[in-house]
Amino acid sequence: MGRLVVVSNRVPSSSDRQQPAGGLAVALQDALSHGEALWFGWSGQQIAEAEASNRKPSEETVDNVTYATIDLTHAEFDGFYQKYSNGILWPLCHYRAGLMDYSRKDREVYLTVNHLFAQQLRPLLRPDDIIWVHDYHLFPLGQALRDVGITNPIGFFLHIPFPPWSLMKALPGAERLMHSLESYDVIGLQTEDDARNMNDGLEQCGVQTRGQVFPIGIDPASFAAQAKACEDDFDVQRLQQSLRGRPLVIGVDRLDYSKGIPERFHGYEAFLKRFPEHKGKVMYLQIAPVSRGTVEEYRRLKQDLDETAGRINGMYGDFDWTPIRYITHPVPRHLLAGFYRLADVALVTPLRDGMNLVAKEYVAAQDEEDPGVLILSHFAGAAPEMEDALLVNPHDADEIADALHKALTMTQSERQERWERLKPDVWRVTAGSWARDFIEQLVRVERG
C-alpha cells in the first residue's frame, strides 16, 4: 500500500493537527498514524478573484502527514460551500427538501470547485496512492479525478444520511450526480437505510456501483479515560457545585435544524408540565455552538431557540432555579467528556443524523458503578445498534417527556444493566475499525 490520501472540504487547522479536537480529524487519527499520508482540501481562507489564477497548494508536514491546502475565491466559497453544499445538499440529505434554494449557477460553481480540487491535487499524487474522498461537498470529485487522468483506487464516504430516490430526484441534475459516483471503487455509508436508499437511486439511474455500510465510531477507551481524568477538572467541579445535588440532563449539538433542538426544548417543557414533581429539582444544560451563522435558516433557528429557552425559563423558573442553561459557544472536548460523565441523562434527539457520535461518547464516558441514561432518537444512525437506550420519536414532545421522567426515576440496577448492554457495541465499532475496514477494501481494488 502506498500513501493514504484523504480529501475533504476542509483540512484541519494548524492547532488541530497535533491534537485533533473533534470531527473527521479525530475519526481519522488512527488511520493517518500508519505510514506516510497526505490530506488535501480547502484552507478555510478566501482570496480575491484576481489572485485565483496563481494559486497553488500550500503544504505543511506534521510528523508523517502532509497537509496540502488551497484557497477559494469569495464567489467559489459562496456558491460551492454556502449555497450548494449547505443550502441544497445538506437539507436534501436530511430529508428537508423544502429548505432547498436551488440555483443552476450555484450547481455550476459546485462542479467547478470539484474540478479545481482534482486539478490541484493531481500533481501531488503518486502512482501507488490510494485516495479517500469524504462527504457531500465532494460527491463529483471521483469523476473529476478520472477526467484529469487519475487511475488510482478512489473511495468515497458519506458522513450524513442519504435520502430515498423519491426525495433525491427533487434535486435538479440528480441523475448526473448519481452517475458521477460510478467513478468510485468503494462507497461507504453509515447505515443500512442509507445504503439501501443510495443503491436504489443508483439502480434507477443505471449505475453499477454499490454503496456499502461502514458505521463510524469513536475511540471509546481513550474517551473513557479522558472523562475519568476530568472528574477533578476545575470547570467540571464548578458545574457539579452549581447543580447543588440536582440531576443533570445534557444535550450537545452543533446548532443545526437537523439536530431537533426546538423539538427537544418542547419535550422538556412538556416534561415540566406533566411531571411537576421535577420542577426545581433537575437541571438541563444545552450546549449548541453556532454554525453557519450567516445562513438565514440558521439565524432563524437561533432566534427561535433563544425565544423558546427564554419563554420556558420565564414560565417555569424560580428565583433560585433556571430550567434550561443554554449556551451557544463551543466547549473544549476534554470538558465535554467530564460533563458527560457528570450528567445523569443525555438527550440526543436529532430529526435525522448520519450516525451521531455524541451518543457513543456519552456511553463511553459513564461511571460503570453509577451510569447515566441515554435518550436517543429513532432517527439517529446510531439507534439500530443502541437499542438499550430510551428510544424516542423527537417529533413527539410527550414521548420525550415520558423518557425524561423514566430516566430520572430509573433504578441504579436498571441503569447498570442498560449500560452493560450498550457498552459492547460502542467498544466493537470504533473509529479505528471503521477506517481500517474501509481502507482494507479500497486496497484490494484492482483497476484495469
TrEMBL record:
Enzyme Commission number, as recorded: 2.4.1.15
Q: Which residues form a coiled coil?
A: none
User: Which Pfam family would be a valid example here?
Assistant: Glyco_transf_20
One Gene Ontology MF term? alpha,alpha-trehalose-phosphate synthase (UDP-forming) activity
Q: Which domain of life is it from?
A: Bacteria
Keywords from the UniProt entry: Glycosyltransferase, Transferase
Q: Under which name does UniProt file this protein?
A: Trehalose-6-phosphate synthase
Native organism is Acetobacter cibinongensis
Lineage of the source organism?
Answer: Bacteria, Pseudomonadati, Pseudomonadota, Alphaproteobacteria, Acetobacterales
